[in-house]
């Protein structure tokens, strides 16, 4: 099994065509066909079905493509890590970011890594916590922000902060971030909800069960962006993490208030695989991410967040100014 065969396999699977794959690989079409056939002969299975629509991976092909892509990624990371660069940590680091924290974390985090560590190639993937956890388990990301997750045998979860959930409404509702809204009052309005099974939906459903409150669900969606758009359009109120709406509230697009009676919050953690050697580049990026999060909370840009004791900054101290800090309290939810 050769690297060029794995490259051909992955490329054909991605584009669905021998001809297109050959163009991308700068090879002639027969060469790509030979590489695929040689791989099939070695494995003793068909990796593709030849259809009128193009090349479609068989179940065996799908499994092989997944592993081949991971192997090629590891080789690429090794080359980047070992490439000599004077006075620089080098390597490729893939980081998972929750969709709900992009507005407050993505830009300062990217700026910190690119400015301080030019030898690191940063790759950012965004998704919901459940998907990010799957990618972390599979090795598709090196580290990831997750929420309401304990450490497992395969993943170490470092608690970073507790974040309040906010009731979110159109501007004319007059919600204020310094005046909490009871869940019972929120229930008097139609609600735009995350779909059943979504991590945020689990938090909301658990709070409703504790308060014996039933919400009038108008619409369900798996998109935080769509939740906000539907609220703006007048289809109801919604409930979201503070980081996901802070910018919209500041710009007057939405109004929001912390949910009370009962309060709702989530625990944001930094997840990282336990197994194998942790490259210096991954360690470096993890440190930068934690430092940026502490700085963002301290500045007030991440409202209703409470830092958890023990998070280091560059000088080894814990950021305290402008943010409350408390010791970890676990309330795990399967996200």
From TrEMBL:
Keywords of the record: Activator, DNA-binding, Transcription, Transcription regulation
Molecular-function annotations in GO: DNA binding; DNA-binding transcription factor activity
GO BP annotations listed: regulation of DNA-templated transcription initiation
Coiled-coil features, chain-numbered ranges: none
InterPro entries: LysR_HTH_N, LysR_subst-bd, WH-like_DNA-bd_sf, WH_DNA-bd_sf
Residue ranges of every copy of the HTH lysR-type domain listed in the record: 1-58
Membership in a protein family: Belongs to the LysR transcriptional regulatory family.
Protein's job: Required for the induction the katG gene for catalase. Involved in the response to hydrogen peroxide.
Name of the featured protein: Probable hydrogen peroxide-inducible genes activator
Organism: Mycolicibacterium monacense
């Amino acid at each position: 099994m050769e690297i060029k065969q794995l490259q051909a396999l992955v490329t054909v699977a991605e584009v669905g065509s021998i001809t297109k794959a050959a163009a991308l690989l700068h090879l002639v079409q027969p060469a790509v066909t030979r590489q695929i056939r040689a791989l099939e002969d070695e494995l003793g299975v068909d990796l593709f079905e030849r259809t009128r629509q193009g090349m479609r991976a068989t179940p065996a092909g799908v499994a092989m493509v997944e592993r081949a892509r991971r192997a090629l990624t590891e080789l690429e990371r090794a080359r980047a890590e070992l490439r000599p660069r004077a006075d620089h940590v080098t390597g490729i680091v893939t980081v998972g970011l929750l969709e709900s924290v992009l507005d407050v974390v993505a830009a300062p985090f990217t700026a910190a890594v690119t400015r301080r560590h030019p030898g690191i190639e940063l790759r950012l993937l965004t998704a919901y916590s459940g998907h990010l956890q799957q990618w972390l388990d599979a090795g598709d990301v090196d580290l990831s922000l997750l929420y309401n997750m304990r450490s497992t045998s395969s993943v170490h979860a470092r608690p970073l902060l507790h974040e309040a959930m906010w009731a979110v409404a159109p501007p004319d509702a007059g919600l204020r971030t310094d005046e909490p809204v009871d869940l019972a009052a929120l229930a008097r309005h139609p609600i735009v909800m995350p779909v059943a099974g979504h991590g945020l939906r689990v938090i909301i459903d658990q709070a409703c069960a504790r308060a014996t409150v039933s919400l009038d669900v108008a619409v369900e969606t798996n998109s935080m962006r769509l939740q906000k758009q539907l609220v703006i359009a007048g289809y109801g109120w919604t409930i979201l993490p503070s980081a996901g709406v802070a910018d919209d509230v500041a710009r007057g697009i939405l109004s929001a208030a912390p949910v009370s009676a009962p309060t709702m919050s989530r625990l944001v953690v930094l997840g990282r695989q336990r197994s194998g050697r942790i490259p210096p580049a991954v360690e470096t990026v993890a440190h930068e991410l934690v430092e940026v999060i502490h700085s963002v909370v301290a500045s007030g840009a991440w409202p209703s967040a409470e830092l958890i004791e023990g998070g280091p900054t560059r000088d080894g101290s814990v950021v305290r100014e402008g943010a409350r800090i408390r010791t970890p309290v676990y309330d795990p939810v399967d996200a």
